[in-house]
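Hi there, hope your week has been kind to you so far. Do you reckon you could talk me through the fold, stretch by stretch? I've dropped the whole record in just underneath, so have a look:
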Amino acid sequence: MNTSATTLKLAVLGSGSGSNMQSVLDAIRAGKLNAEMKLVLSDVADAGILERARRNNIPHAWLDCAPFKTKLDGDAEQRCIAMLREAGADTVILAGFMRIVKPGLLNAFPMRVLNIHPALLPAFPGLQAWQQALDYGTKVAGCTVHFVDAGTDTGPIIVQRSVPVLEEDTPETLHARIQEQEHEAYPEALRLLSEGRLSVDGRRVLIRNG
């Protein structure tokens, strides 16, 4: 790890099991990423990501996003921002967060909100990207870590990793192989951010050599 890297103060928003959160935490503990995990929030009260946070002694909470079903907005967004700031977070990572984030959060943490998507964007944005890849008949799938903007999976791309689509693949087997790459790509992107090696020029993310 680059000892001159800035220590990222991470907050995680997730809706599912939290495997990507775990990969980031594992990288921190292995000395591969200069970061601290300050808070984990989930819009699902019984989400596995909250249990992972509990087991690892990371502050965590359920975030009630009602009345909205597909976005983080309104009072819930303001509560979220307040909780992130109180925790001392300076970077927000989305890890299977199944809601659209809105400008309030993005403006509170400008160019410090990251997401990982299970496709080689701009191909196959949205839900069930691995199923989309199979249905389309593409020969290569993968994952993308990107900065979040106001669109859906449209922000500037930081890191991508590819996997072949095999003839015998099912949605489950392809998704599993993509997730293996996700667990490498997310810590890599965060390491580049912590080392100050990322700059954004329009839609392009430039990576300075370390």
User: Anything to note?
Assistant: The mean pLDDT is 96. The chain has six helices and eleven strands. The helical segments are 19-29, 48-55, 74-87, 103-108, 129-136, 171-194. The longest strand covers residues 35-42.
